[in-house]
Amino acid sequence: MVRKVVLAYSGGLDTSVAVRWIAERYKCEVVCYCADVGQAEDLEGARQKALAVGASKAVVADLRLEFVRDYVWPALRAGALYEQIYLLGTSLARPCIGKGLMDAADAEGADAIGHGATGKGNDQVRFELAAYHFRPGIKIIAPWREWEFKGRKELIDYTKQHDIPIEATADKPYSVDRNLLHTSYEGGVLEDPWKEPDPAMFQLTRDPRQAPDEPRTIELELEQGNVVAVDGQRLGPVEMLARLNQIGGEHGIGRVDLVENRYVGMKSRGVYETPGGSLIHAARAAVESLTLDRELLRLRHDLMPRYAALVYNGFWFAPEREALQRMIDDIAQAITGTARLRLYKGSITTLGRKSPRSLYRPDIVTFEEDTVYDQRDAQGFIRLNALRLRIRSELDRRSGGDRKD
Question: How far apart (Å, rounded) are the C-alpha atoms in residues 367 and 47?
């Protein structure tokens, strides 16, 4: 028997309906939990709405520092891109919210949690894997897997019947998810992958065509893989990401339109804008090109898709992600330096990079005369690398070139 449920509450359509539906279906108390991860919304208004639609209590938790410091920064140190393009904004926020949700469940003495994720999406996996990590026996209520509603149009009808205030309409019911790292849009009118997104939809970035005609040059300073200063000004994690979102957004940086592979097996179309994260990703890549040993950088690149898939699929708290993170963070110790970037109408160009830990040696790489590199050494190096190719070629000639493989 369920006595008290802590519901991850956003104030949107799905969770507003879920408050009333869970209370009626389970005859239990519902406590709403609103996590502030930088979505720039009226969370006090969401808290009041939760109470108005039937919650016995509603709490707002400020998770912005924890989100950036403990989730966004580690993923950016890893260079994590899902399917080579997505900076994982929603994927990183979910385990952070999931941890906060479980902390609230413990504080409230709840025997169950709930969320508004659909049975078709990734978020149900992310929330629930986090929940089971912190309390293996927790009861989880996922209304989309239980209730009678077939789609968001029926949810909208339900809100009208119960006087639940919402922003979504039947004409524009696409879903928006925003946090300090990004804003994402999916569903509704965006389900046609041929349809261009409405330019008025975007919240963080200017249309690159409307961005300033003059480029902007910025310098980002990194220490051990984390950005710590912009144009010489040191900022904390939350302030830094907010500042870079503003700078990048003004110049149309960070828009992505992606048809991605969900963990549950289907393809979906997501539109994302990640201006600050895109700047950090570019700056880190510039600095690490100077400071990372070739094989370490290659290893990190090899592991990145695996790491990104673990995060995307909800395995943030899994031992394999944590093991990868420890190695990635060890590699990142060398990523200290400054990158100079030019921003212009949606593009990022690296203009320069420098580091006190640079492995770049002008005295070795120069085409001019030097005293530290004997070019004759290259002959033996090439002959040894060609040995297996020469042996194979000689075998082919002896056998008349008839070998097939």
Answer: 66
- DSSP structural state of residue 376: T
Looking at 131, 157, 173, the residue that finishes a domain is: 173
| Residue 399: inside a domain | no
Question: Are 160 and 104 within one domain?
Answer: yes
Choose the final residue of a domain: 134, 150, 173.
Answer: 173
Q: Which of 16, 77, 123, 278 is catalytic?
A: 123
pLDDT tens, per residue, the chain with 405 residues: 999 999 999 988 889 999 999 999 999 999 999 999 999 999 999 999 999 999 999 999 999 999 999 999 999 999 999 999 999 999 999 999 999 999 999 999 999 999 999 999 999 999 999 999 999 999 999 999 999 998 878 998 999 888 887 765 555 556 889 999 999 999 888 999 999 999 999 999 999 999 999 999 999 999 999 999 999 999 999 999 999 999 999 999 999 999 999 999 999 999 999 999 999 999 999 999 999 999 999 999 999 999 999 999 999 999 999 999 999 999 999 999 999 999 999 999 999 999 999 999 888 777 777 678 888 888 999 999 999 999 999 999 998 755 555
The pair phi, psi for residue 205, each rounded to 5°, is -125, 145
Query: Is 374 among the catalytic positions?
Result: no
Kindly give the pairing relationship between strand 337-344 and strand 216-223.
antiparallel
Of the candidates 101, 109, 119, the residue with the CA atom closest to the CA atom of residue 32: 101
Assess whether 70 carries a catalytic annotation.
no
Confirm whether pTM is higher than 0.70. yes
Indicate if 355 belongs to the active site: no
Whether residue 115 is found in the same domain as residue 251: no
Verify that 216 and 288 share a domain, yes or no: yes
Is residue 178 part of the annotated active site? The answer reads no
321 and 336 both lie in a single domain: yes
Residue 38 in any domain: the answer is: yes
